[in-house]
């Protein structure tokens, strides 16, 4: 497959041209954005077991990282401040390094079964305060740090994307077995996966064991 190249004649390069393609924002879309977490936003966060964090590296590279835990794992410290526990991962530390370079982050809170979402933007810092971390322990394991976010914007996002995608509709669920396992994909992309099916099954089983040992 040859590399695709965008035709510059059809590239939008300024905001005025962009906005000319769309109707003007409604007053409601503008005014729904708040600079704090009201009771509705707080209730949404307390119900959410999953949030995506958007960050940006000093050189401009963007990244989005999923974070999941038991319902209500994101701590609401006050109406302007959130704390997200950092759980064990692959130690790439992409989001954390990005925050050190550029504290501006965007969050998308998701609740299973809800088509609407909550968006929160703010400035993040990495915190090791025991007073914060102490309440974030799961299975007796305390996180090494928390991402503390000072909220600058918070607003509900409409259901269109989730309804278009049928994300929660079981009739649209796909069979994970239609693609290779995560272990095989990564091995194929790197050192090479074993050709022996039994050896590959053992690697997949070992990953499941590792999940159970290293979730917290």
UniProtKB/TrEMBL annotation:
The protein's superkingdom reads Bacteria
InterPro entries recorded: Pyridox_Oxase_FMN-dep (IPR024029), Pyridox_Oxase_N (IPR011576), Split_barrel_FMN-bd (IPR012349)
All residue ranges annotated as the Pyridoxamine 5'-phosphate oxidase N-terminal domain in the record: 41-158
> What is this protein's name?
Pyridoxamine 5'-phosphate oxidase family protein
Q: Which organism is it from?
A: Devosia neptuniae
